[in-house]
Specification:
The complex is a heterodimer. By secondary structure, chain A is of the alpha+beta class. Chain A folds into 2 domains: about 70 residues, Ubiquitin-like (UB roll) (Roll); about 70 residues, DNA polymerase, domain 1. Chain A has 6 helices and 5 strands. The mean pLDDT of chain A is about 95. Helix content of chain B is about 30%, strand content about 20%. Chain B has a 7-stranded mixed beta sheet with strand order 10-11-8-18-15-16-17. A 5-stranded mixed beta sheet of chain B has the order 13-21-20-19-14. The chains are: A alpha+beta, B alpha+beta. At the A-B interface, helix 1, helix 3, helix 4, helix 5 and helix 6 of A face helix 20 of B. Bound molecules: FE2/S2 (inorganic) cluster (FES) (2 copies).
Chain lengths: ~150, ~725
């Protein structure tokens, strides 16, 4: 039995210790907003927040999150920064296919929560672990800047 | 949005075949290449009857219900290119409804209705979507508006010319007003107007102005459902291990009991060339596949490697192949030239690697096969799936889905057939998800190409003409099952046989050389991308050979191409092309005229240390004719440019023992935010017919990069990717 706090709600789940959080979220809990892209922490589409920090859930055993707060794309919009980022994403029409964007947004929200006035360098540092095969980086940058300068 | 369960009803031919077909010839002649005999454009106008029941429609494309809500049936799948919003805008513009009143439904497979005349089958690819929908979809909207106005005029007993449509309503001369929903029944009974005029561009309210995409709000909050996110009742997850060598088979399988003992695992399924496991979750599938002891018969190609493949292609490229194009007399031109210039360019095998790996939900029952899958060619998927499960084609139902990146990969249906092959052996539906490793090592790759160019130069070192030999696997043959009688892969030689430069003598030879082991397919930018790389590097080399400025040299040779000249001039102006850069920095340019659009891209980079490259600036100018939704055009150019650079910098699929060596993104690196600055896009103002944009941005990127490298360092690299020669980004 694993005890999990996901999006503010406690869950008791019968899953193996070493099962990555990603698959617990997607296939056990049905929270499919968090995506699978590589499984080896290379692409960032599986990014969630663990106690507010951006983390790749594909390589995180579920046992490691016991007692910690997991936040996914499904609830990040309840935070003011999350809401601002989602709005900026739409205003800048960032999205192309959209598959990577849950992860991008989770990374951006973690960045802007820690550094509300993130510099260009901090933006590149925080976002370069998130691949976008449609290469929407130009607009991701612009959208983050619009929030950090607001 | 992707639920099209109700679509078959809408497509009942009853309504479609009534109505006048008088216009169909007109539309067809405007759109079809001569070899195509039918098109869904014809059916737009045949579908004058608005259908039956609660769902009223205008032919195959537009439905209006009793509340006035408008559904546009999109023959094109959304892969991030914004095409469905563009199509909705075309209909909304002519129908006089706000965009917010429109929703999109995916078209089911139906060749008679949804064949793209530019592609000759129902598919999304080749940057044809906007080009081909531009007239028929606006006509669908305009025709619907006309019969709605007519219905209102009859009701009020006034002349239709005194009524107008606005905001989803028809307004009459004496302040009468009726919503479309109230009018659909009456409108449905009216005959189709024989002449459907379209709104002049200067009266557009929606088209030409940036609109927010209809599909994006769900994509920023995690609620958008891609195939990988679907859940159908009773479904289990499936994953496969496929024989690592193409053409190999499954010989033996042991340890099944251990695999099945893993929590959540249900079945182990043997296929001819693969093993599948089903389980309650993807992780358990992977654990079980790892636990299995699989013995492969690697088949006849297990000894192949990249060195052998490279050599055989390189040797073949010196051969004569077949003529793809012949103008003037290049042999005499070369003989009489005051000098000659030769170069050989190479482009590697490439994987598509969309971030959503290949995924398909399949349920095969005794009498029906139901598929939920994001695919670019649903008609072909349907036909092939029928074969695999032994059911008639009409018993295969495809629910097309949002696509998490296509780039050509989902024009192929191999993974769909594998899902059907597994599901037909099981009593429950499955969601087949390929691991990234399966996805990368079992792709259908962009072919490896060798281009040899040999130019005859005049005394001013300008080309009189050149010979261009193109050698590589034929994607056309792989996809369509053969080549036309002339033996030419018409895709591979595009651009090469019709360059923007005026050449008196031009000869293009095509040398087909299919690798033994590597399946090949379409890759974003297709033939024009590969040929543009060779031609734009070559012209740059010729310019430097002539000690001429690469922009001016090009301009002097493209007198018959005013739109190409204009984008090149504009890009040069924006970047300050004339202002010199410090030593170690340089600018490179490339121009393309493909998919009905004209692009000039300039890369500015700085060399750091021996092989470090810092990309400092990226500028791209596009003339795509009338830009329906300018923000989407810009977005495609930004992404396309970086997509092209990503491959040119880093990507190459290599083979060892018949097996693809790149298994995941640590070995097949993609461009990241830290690798490149923002892309600056300039869109030329134009009222010409819209050109394609989905692939256009990627086309000139590689040549511009390589030309910039030369400008910065004096080193001419001709073989991609640059990482092969030790370059890296800083
Ligand atoms: S799926 Fe986790 S980083 Fe790629
Ligand atoms: S939007 Fe397609 S992968 Fe990022």
């Amino acid at each position: 039995m694993q005890k999990l706090m996901v999006n503010g709600v406690e869950h008791q789940l019968d899953v193996p210790d070493d099962m990555p959080l990603l698959w617990v979220l997607r296939d056990v809990m049905g929270l499919t907003g968090t995506k699978y892209g590589c499984g080896i922490a290379q692409c960032g589409v599986c990014t969630v927040h663990l106690d507010g920090h951006a983390t790749r859930s594909c390589v995180l055993p579920v046992s490691a999150v016991a007692g910690r707060q997991v936040t996914t794309i499904e609830s990040v919009g309840e935070q003011p920064v999350g809401q601002a980022v989602q709005k900026a994403w739409l205003e800048h029409e960032v999205v192309q296919c959209g598959y990577c964007q849950s992860g991008q947004i989770m990374s951006a929200v973690a960045l802007l929560t820690e550094h509300p006035k993130a510099s260009d360098e901090q933006i590149v540092d925080a976002m370069s672990g998130n691949l976008c095969r449609c290469a929407t980086y130009t607009r991701i940058r612009a959208a983050i800047k619009s929030v950090s300068q607001a | 949005m992707s639920d099209n369960q109700s679509s078959p009803a809408l497509l009942s031919r009853r309504g479609l075949l009534k109505g006048g077909a008088a216009l169909s010839g007109l539309i067809i002649s405007a759109y079809l290449p001569p070899m195509v005999s039918r098109s869904f454009a014809a059916d737009v106008v045949k579908g004058a009857n608005l259908g039956d029941g609660a769902e009223k429609g205008y032919g195959a494309f537009v439905r209006i219900d009793h509340t006035g809500a408008v559904t546009v049936i999109s023959p094109k799948i959304e892969m991030g290119q914004g095409v469905q919003t563009g199509i909705a805008m075309m209909v909304a513009e002519e129908l006089e409804v706000p965009l917010s009143q429109v929703t999109i439904a995916e078209a089911p497979p139906n060749a008679a209705l949804y064949t793209d005349p530019l592609l000759t089958f129902q598919a999304t690819g080749g940057s044809t979507s906007t080009r081909y929908t531009w007239e028929p979809l606006r006509k669908a909207g305009a025709g619907a508006r006309m019969v709605l106005i007519q219905a209102a005029a009859l009701r009020w007993n006034v002349a239709p010319s005194l009524c107008r449509a606005e905001n989803g309503r028809v307004l009459g001369p004496n302040n009468q007003s009726a919503g479309y929903g109230e009018l659909v029944d009456a409108a449905a009974a009216l005959p189709l107007p024989t002449d459907i005029p379209l709104k002049p561009i200067n009266t557009f309210k929606l088209l030409g102005k940036s609109a927010q995409r209809l599909d994006t709000p769900h994509k920023v909050n995690g609620t958008a459902k891609f195939t990988i996110d679907l859940q159908v009742p009773g479904m289990l997850i499936a994953s496969t291990r496929t024989c690592p060598v193409s053409g190999g088979t499954l010989r033996n399988l042991k340890n099944e009991a251990a695999a099945k003992a893993i929590a959540g695992v249900r079945d182990v399924v043997r296929l001819d060339n693969a093993v599948a496991v089903t389980a309650t979750n993807f992780w358990a599938c992977q654990q079980a596949l790892n636990a299995l002891d699989i013995e492969w018969d690697m088949g006849p190609h297990a000894g192949l490697d990249s060195a052998k493949l490279d050599k055989s292609l390189f040797d073949a490229s010196a051969g004569d192949g077949v003529f793809a194009h012949k103008a003037g007399d290049i042999a005499s031109a070369l003989k009489n030239a005051s000098s000659r210039f030769e170069a050989i360019y190479e482009q590697p095998f490439l994987s598509h690697s969309p971030l959503e790996p290949m995924t398909c939900v399949a349920h095969v029952r005794a009498d029906e096969c139901e598929l939920w899958v994001g695919c670019q060619a649903p008609g072909l998927a349907q036909m092939g799936a029928a074969k695999v499960c032994g059911l008639p084609v009409e018993k295969v139902v495809i629910h097309n889905q949002l696509i998490g990146g296509g780039f050509g990969r989902r024009l192929e249906s191999d993974f769909i057939f594998q899902a059907v092959d597994i599901a037909r052996k099981l009593s429950y539906p499955i969601k087949l998800i390929w691991s990234r490793e399966e996805d990368m090592t079992h792709d259908r790759y962009r072919p490896h190409y060798v281009d040899r160019l040999n130019a005859a130069l005049d005394k001013d070192l300008r080309p009189v003409g050149w010979e261009h030999r193109i050698a590589g696997a034929s994607v056309v043959a792989a996809y369509l099952g053969g080549l036309p009688a002339d033996g030419v892969d018409f895709d591979a030689v595009e651009v090469a046989k019709d360059p923007i430069y005026t050449l008196k003598d031009l000869q293009v030879r095509y040398i087909r050389h299919d690798p033994e082991v590597i399946p090949v397919s379409w890759w974003r930018g297709v033939g024009p991308l590969r040929s543009t790389y060779a031609v734009e590097c070559f012209i740059d080399e010729l310019a430097h050979n002539a000690k001429a400025d690469p922009v001016n040299y090009r301009l002097g040779l493209m007198q018959s191409q005013p739109r190409a000249q204009a984008v090149l001039r504009k890009a040069a102006e924006i970047t300050g092309w004339d202002k010199p850069l410090p030593a170690g920095s340089g600018r490179g340019v490339a121009v393309s005229a493909v998919f009905g659009s004209f692009v000039a891209t300039i890369v500015e980079l700085e060399k750091q240390g021996a092989k470090g490259l810092r990309i400092k600036r990226l500028v791209t100018v596009i003339d795509c004719g009338f830009a329906n939704n300018p923000t989407s055009v810009a977005s495609q150019m930004e992404g396309g440019t970086l997509f092209g650079l990503s491959a040119a910098l880093f990507n190459e699929i290599l083979i060892e023992n018949g097996q693809v060596q790149q298994t995941n993104f640590h070995q097949y690196r993609q461009i990241r935010m830290s690798d490149a600055p923002p892309v600056e896009v300039h869109i030329v103002d134009s009222v010409e017919s819209p050109g394609g944009v989905g692939e256009t941005g990627a086309v000139p990127a590689a040549a511009a990069l390589v030309n910039a490298l030369y400008a910065a360092t004096g080193v001419r690299e001709r073989r991609l990717p640059l990482s092969r020669s030790g370059y890296f980004t800083v």
